[in-house]
Structure formats: structure tokens, C-alpha cells
Design brief:
By secondary structure, the chain is α+β, with helices and mostly antiparallel strands. About 40% of the residues lie in helices and about 15% in strands. It has ten helices and eleven strands.
Length: about 300
């Protein structure tokens, strides 16, 4: 082990840390590239709401979103895959180096990996197979696991990388969807034929965007009164929220916004800092994203 000027015990050598940093820089660059491509597509695409009355009762209407062009899923998936590979490789490289430095017993280098576990059973299985690591390192690994059963806020974004590492790397980005709740809930309902807006029941769908698709059914609005016609919702043009879906292999569909995806490399860097001996980095790794905090402040 080496020691910093501040007395913090370091688990990695300087050259070892530099090699991991190169992986993180590559992942960060790929994330920024993905963000540019998605933002460029959003800026150049018009999203328009359309409504049609429910037949034959006429006591509600369907809401559709029409896009002026298709989304380039394959290009996004390729960039996201490269970003995820570099981030996941940094974690396994970290684990390899720590085993080489600190293992207290024999181990097979072909059967070790950095743990990404989402429940206690998975964690215990991994721990049993990696008994040659010292206790202090096992404890640091456990502190960063993306387990939803932990108390308090903790970062779960690593969970999607597990499927990517074990399954087909060419389809890591499983799908992209529109999340309609945001613009439906905030929209101004203009319904012709009645003096006031009746009580509404909103059945919103998180709609997957298929390759080549430019029109999707995002919601059904039902009322208790017959309508003559229905106007648009929230204005003719909207700015939708995109969600990126990752099948993590445990039966759970994990959903990331674009900002959540591109910050994964930053979280991996905080994780490495913590495992390398910087205790303060754990709080940065587990902290809520800045845009979540901003939204919470705005809601108060």
C-alpha cells in the first residue's frame, strides 16, 4: 500500500490508477458523444400531439405523439455500448489489480470479477467465491452495491452494467421510450363542446419507440361526459422526456434518462476513489444527482 500526504491509505499504485483513469476518460468521452447525438436529434425533431375521440361512446379520447423523423437507435446503442464497456472494464480492471496486490490466498484469475449485485443472495454468492480478498476491501465493495433494499439514498445506476457484462454487448441499449406523464400532467386541456373541463381519468403509457416509428399512442383520457370534440394537449408542439431501457438480466427493466446514463462514468470514478482509500468519495458516489436535487428544491 502507498500513503498520500494526508495519511490516507491507498490500495493502488500510481501507474495502476493511471490505467483505470484512461478507461474512465474513454467512457466519459463516449457519454458526451451520446448526449450530443441525442440532443441534436431532439433539437431537429418536431413532436406534435394529436387527439381522436373514443368511439362509439365519445366519453374520452386518445392522445398520440407524432415525430417528424425516426430516432437513430442503432447509432445511439453503439455509442452507449462503448461507454458501458469502458466503464465496466474499469471496474474489472480495478478488481484484477486489487486481487494481484492484496489477495490473502490462492485464486483463479479467470473467475474473478468486480461485484454488481442487486440483492443479498447475489452478494453472498459473490463473496463466497472471492474469499481471498481482505475484509476491509470486501466491506468497501459491499458499500457501493446497487441494492434497493439498503436504507437511505444510494446510487443504483451500476445495476444496468451487469447485464451488459454478461450478455450480448451489441444490444446493451434495449429500447428508447417516450415518458408521456410529464407533458400530459402539465398540459392545458381544451375540450370543445362543454363549459368546464370534466373530471378526467388519465391512462398514460411509457411507449417504446420502435425502429422507423414516427407515431405512438401515449395515453387515453376518459371522462364521465360525452364530448363533441377534443383539442390538443399542452400546445401543438411538445418536448418529450426520453427514457433508455436496459435489461439487467434479473427480470427488472432498468430505466435511465439521458443525464443518468452519461453520468455513469463519473460515478465509477467516485467508486474507484473510495475503494482506493478516499472515504469522502463514497458520499459523492451515493449522492443524488444535481438535477434531482434541483427538482426537489423547485417542488418545495
Amino acid at each position: 500500500m502507498r500513503h498520500s500526504a494526508f495519511g490516507i491509505t491507498k490500495a493502488l499504485g500510481i501507474d495502476e490508477r493511471g490505467a483505470l483513469e484512461a478507461r474512465i476518460v474513454d467512457a466519459t468521452r463516449r457519454g458526451a458523444e451520446l448526449e450530443r447525438f441525442v440532443d441534436r436529434w431532439l433539437a431537429g425533431t418536431t413532436f406534435t400531439t394529436r387527439t381522436t375521440l373514443l368511439e362509439p361512446s365519445g366519453t374520452g379520447f386518445n392522445v398520440h405523439v407524432e415525430m417528424s423523423r425516426v430516432h437513430p437507435h442503432d447509432r445511439w446503442a453503439t455509442i452507449a455500448s462503448s461507454m458501458a464497456h469502458a466503464a465496466r472494464a474499469a471496474l474489472d480492471n480495478l478488481n484484477d489489480r486489487l486481487f494481484d496486490r492484496h489477495a490473502t490466498g490462492p485464486y483463479d484469475p479467470r473467475h474473478i470479477s468486480f461485484p454488481i449485485t442487486t440483492n443479498g443472495r447475489e452478494w453472498r454468492t459473490w463473496k463466497q467465491a472471492h474469499r481471498s480478498l481482505p475484509t476491509w476491501l470486501i466491506e468497501r465493495y459491499e458499500a457501493v452495491q446497487p441494492r434497493p433494499d439498503k436504507a437511505g439514498h444510494h446510487y443504483l445506476g451500476l445495476a444496468g452494467l451487469q447485464w451488459y457484462d454478461n450478455k450480448d454487448k451489441h444490444v446493451w441499449l434495449q429500447g428508447v421510450s417516450l415518458a408521456p406523464t410529464e407533458f400530459i400532467g402539465a398540459g392545458q386541456f381544451e375540450i370543445e363542446g362543454v363549459d368546464s373541463v370534466p373530471e378526467l381519468e388519465v391512462d398514460a403509457h411509457e411507449v417504446f419507440l420502435s425502429r422507423g416509428q414516427t407515431r405512438v399512442h401515449v395515453a387515453t383520457i376518459r371522462t364521465r361526459r360525452r364530448l363533441l370534440s377534443a383539442g390538443t394537449i399542452g400546445g401543438q408542439e411538445i418536448v418529450p422526456i426520453l427514457h433508455f431501457h436496459i435489461d439487467s438480466g434479473d427480470g427488472v427493466d432498468r430505466t435511465y434518462t439521458l443525464r443518468e446514463m452519461v453520468e455513469i462514468p463519473k460515478r465509477v470514478r467516485h467508486l474507484i476513489d473510495y475503494v482506493d482509500g478516499n472515504d469522502e468519495a463514497l458520499a459523492r458516489f451515493q449522492s443524488k444527482p444535481s438535477y434531482v436535487l434541483d427538482a426537489e428544491r423547485a417542488g418545495k
